[in-house]
């Protein structure tokens, strides 16, 4: 008799596991509809879900609570969410400056949003939260790639040095043809590249200063690869010949 009771219990456990798997599959289908692949699902259990972003350097742990009254997610009663915790796994000592900048901007965004648990009280809100985070991660990731490009190929555009400090990028331009050397410092934020960047200029040689840089920057539309296009435009308009 005990054996059959144990069998029945095993079957119940199996059925429950199968149900959980079905729920997970249904949740994943809904999440995939947002068509953003900036997150990777590492775990989905009865207790929590774990998502990784940006080459596993940012982790989001979502802890589930009891079912939410009258709300459904993936055709089942929606779960309440007790907490959403973000953690950085970037080794700042070893990582290149561009990666550190990207990480800082992402966490600046995450902290600027106030309580994520208030924004995301139940599973129903999770896809939108993942979408919002993915959008910022995607933009910041592209910014990191732009910085790496400028560090590698900057000399082609009279860019002598690219220096990252906190959330600022200092670009040192030098051109003998234009008899000019100056530093352009740009202040970056998680909104990049959807807004013009605050900047300052320090002139070392020649007469290229804030007025000349402001004129060039105002002619570069914000959007995809904004930083690269700013550098191209400065090179094209200011550093080709005598001024």
TrEMBL record:
The lineage of its organism: Eukaryota, Metazoa, Chordata, Craniata, Vertebrata. GO terms for cellular component: nucleus. It comes from Oreocharis arfaki (tit berrypecker). GO terms for biological process: attachment of spindle microtubules to kinetochore; protein localization to kinetochore. Residues 10-144 form the Knl1 C-terminal RWD domain. Coiled coil: none annotated. This is KNL1 protein. It comes from the Eukaryota. Pfam families: Knl1_RWD_C. InterPro entries: Blinkin, Knl1_RWD_C.
């Amino acid at each position: 008799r005990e054996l059959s009771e144990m069998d029945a219990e095993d079957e119940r456990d199996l059925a429950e596991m199968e149900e959980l798997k079905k729920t997970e599959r249904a949740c994943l289908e809904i999440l995939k509809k947002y068509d953003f692949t900036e997150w990777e699902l590492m775990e989905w259990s009865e207790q929590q879900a774990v998502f990784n972003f940006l080459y596993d350097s940012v982790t989001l742990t979502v802890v589930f609570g009891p079912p939410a009254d009258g709300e459904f997610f993936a055709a089942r009663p929606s779960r309440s969410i007790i907490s959403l915790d973000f953690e950085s796994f970037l080794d700042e000592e070893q990582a290149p400056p561009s990666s550190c900048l990207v990480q800082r901007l992402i966490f600046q965004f995450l902290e600027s949003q106030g309580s994520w648990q208030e924004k995301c009280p139940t599973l129903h809100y999770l896809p939108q939260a993942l979408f919002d985070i993915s959008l910022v991660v995607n933009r910041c990731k592209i910014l990191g790639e732009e910085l790496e490009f400028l560090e590698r190929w900057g000399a082609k555009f009279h860019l002598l040095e690219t220096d990252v400090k906190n959330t600022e990028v200092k670009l040192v331009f030098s051109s003998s043809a234009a008899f000019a050397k100056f530093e352009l410092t740009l202040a970056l934020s998680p909104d990049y590249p959807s807004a013009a960047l605050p900047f300052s200029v320090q002139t070392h040689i020649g007469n290229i200063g804030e007025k000349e840089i402001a004129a060039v920057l105002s002619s570069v539309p914000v959007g995809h690869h904004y930083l690269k296009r700013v550098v191209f435009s400065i090179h094209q308009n200011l550093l080709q010949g005598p001024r």
